[in-house]
Write a structure and sequence with these properties.
Largest sheet: 5 strands, antiparallel
Number of strands: 33
Helix content: under 10%
Strand order of the largest sheet: 1-6-5-4-3
Strand content: 35-45%
């Protein structure tokens, strides 16, 4: 597939008098860095974006991956996402490159990248599964300009979620076993999953795992360094999902625990950690019939969600390296979930207050107490989506069901600050959401253009001289190789993409509804 390169520009001069990005305890909002904004653009359509939550789409070097729209109508019915052909992208040093798909007219989406720049995600392959009446997807790896299909475990679907720095990939894949009695049976006891959001109770295990209908069992899997997809099994039931992996090769996810249905109509779901070839059941830490592990850091600490007794509420939970659980609770309601965890074991996410308002929170590892991060001005609600190892937190303010309003940043849980007040120069983009932040302070975010288009953007602290130097050098080379940046980024779409509010939660633009 031909590669498309989109140039982005620094919209202002670089100032050098801002304090360093490192943010030890005691810093205030007055010492937050200023940022350079880079528009990732599109491949001719009207949007580009990152997945969230729980996506490792930004590496330590500032490279980022996501999904980018073309103006070409999707030839498949049912169509993928917005009914245009949309491709995975990789942003590196100021340039946005199409990663490609398994078939030219089939969509793809990148959702994980390691520090070597190797990316993973999914691609349609152009084949139709008559049993599900849907198009087949495959987990894929993009490396050195080539795409590799990781295959399945005997079925028709797979999805690659994350890749560690050893090149191991965590994935989900269908098996050839069609005896699963819970296909098309909704997980009524599910209160939240990173893949399906709060709507997971209306979908079955397959939809809640890889977004698409299934006709066989689905198992978590690992793509090994030897180039083989290995089934990691289940906790005794027909299905499992594996979603995150650390550099030690530990994997976390969730699994049915038996073939016997509980009061909800499906088997109990437990979180697990898989290590050294063994899947370990993390149990039901708060007494409910549903719990899931969604994140694992380099120290083996785990974050996830668990229902309380009677499935009355869902709370954020952190497990220590020895698998001791801690309840982070909620902000006074029956609902909360984690969006990200750093290597100290601090988590951030979303919870509702006793009055029903949504708020971003941080739960510090030192005491496992949940702290309301508030909102900005009269913005009604907020969510915290990322935290780095310096304690810098990013997130969103929004109006539920209507629109994202502002991306924000906080130091050590201090007052949240509108990112739009920290960006230098005139760039014509309003940052409506911040997705994640790396340890260099680089932020992957979502911006709205004046014409209503939504683009993925990268915010680079202007004191990150090393990355800025690489961007400057790369852009100088690209200027000599490409047509004008404006012609590459202008939209040629004949119709606007639909907002995607009926699409899987992690594929939605933020303006569909955070939380």
């Amino acid at each position: 597939m031909n590669k498309s390169t989109i140039l982005t520009t620094i919209a202002f001069g670089i100032a050098v008098s801002i304090p360093a990005i490192a943010a030890p305890p005691g810093h205030t909002a007055d010492t937050l860095p200023r940022y350079l904004l880079f528009d990732i653009g599109s491949f001719g359509g009207k949007f580009s974006g990152f997945c969230y939550p729980n996506c490792r789409q930004l590496n330590t070097g500032g490279e980022a991956v996501g999904i980018d729209a073309t103006s070409f109508p999707d030839p498949f019915d049912p169509c993928f996402y917005d009914c245009n052909v949309d491709y995975a992208f990789k942003w590196r040093y100021g340039g946005t490159n199409e990663l490609g798909s398994l078939q030219y007219t089939a969509g793809s989406w990148a959702q994980g990248i390691n520090d070597s720049g190797i990316s993973v995600g999914l691609s349609l392959n152009g084949k139709y599964d008559k049993k599900t009446q849907f198009w087949e997807t495959r987990g894929v790896i993009w490396k050195n300009g080539k795409i590799r299909n990781i295959g399945t475990l005997g079925g028709t679907q797979s999805n690659a979620w994350m890749i560690n720095n050893s090149g191991q990939v965590v994935a989900d894949a269908l098996t050839g076993d069609s005896s699963d009695p819970y296909i098309n049976v909704s997980q009524a006891n599910c209160r939240w999953l990173p893949t399906g959001g709060s709507g997971c109770a209306t979908a079955d295990f397959g939809i809640n795992t890889i977004y698409f209908p299934v006709a066989t069992t689905i198992h978590g899997a690992i793509w090994t360094q030897a180039g083989k997809l290995v089934d990691i099994g289940t906790l005794g039931g027909p299905d499992s999902s594996a979603i995150d992996i650390n550099d030690a090769g530990q994997i976390v996810g969730w699994s049915y625990t038996s073939y016997s249905a509980g009061p909800s109509g499906v088997p109990d779901t437990h979180p697990f950690v898989w290590q050294n070839g063994t899947m370990i059941d993390l149990g039901s830490p708060l007494g409910g019939t549903f719990a899931a592990a969604t994140l694992i850091n380099k120290n083996g600490e785990i974050a996830g969600v668990a229902n309380t007794t009677g499935d009355a509420a869902v709370h954020s939970v952190v497990w220590e390296g020895d698998h001791t659980p801690h309840d982070c609770g909620t902000l006074g309601s029956d609902y909360g979930h984690p969006d990200w965890m750093n290597d100290q074991g601090d988590i951030v996410g979303f919870s509702r207050t006793a009055g029903g308002l949504g708020r971003g929170f941080v739960c510090w590892h030192t005491n496992h107490e949940i702290v309301d991060l508030g909102t900005i001005g009269d913005d009604p609600e907020s969510e915290a989506t990322g935290i780095n190892n310096a304690g810098m937190i990013v997130g969103i303010t929004f109006q539920r069901g209507v629109a994202d309003l502002k991306g924000w940043v906080s130091i050590q849980g201090g007052p949240i600050r509108d990112l739009n007040t920290l960006i230098r120069g005139r760039h014509g983009i309003h940052v409506v959401a911040a997705n994640t932040i790396n340890d260099s302070g680089v932020i992957a975010a979502q911006g709205e253009l004046k014409n209503g288009e939504h683009h993925a953007v990268i915010l680079v602290p202007e004191t990150n001289f090393a990355l800025i130097a690489k961007i400057t050098a790369a852009m100088a080379r690209l200027q000599n190789e490409s047509p004008s940046p404006s012609s590459a980024t202008q939209s040629g779409a004949s119709h606007a993409p639909r907002p995607g509010c009926t699409s899987p939660a992690r594929l939605r633009p933020h303006f569909c509804n955070p939380g």
